[in-house]
Specification:
The chain is mostly beta strands. The protein has one domain. Helices cover 0% and strands 31% of the residues. The protein is built from no helices and five strands. The strands form two sheets. Strands 2-3-4 form a three-stranded antiparallel sheet, with no helix packed on it. Strand 3 and strand 4 form a beta hairpin. The relative contact order is 0.36.
Length: 55
Amino acid sequence: MAEEKVPKCPVCGGIDLVKKKRGWTITTGVFGMNKMQYHCQSCGKKFMENKAVYE
């Protein structure tokens, strides 16, 4: 059986992540608003799905 890779925070290595749509921001406007973003519950860092560390 293949193990499922779990995303981890690139800053603290925590696995307690919340995944949601990025939404509209003042700096980027509507560009990228439909992309998925992770929010780490351990350190508070927000990062895009492609920056997550998978192990």
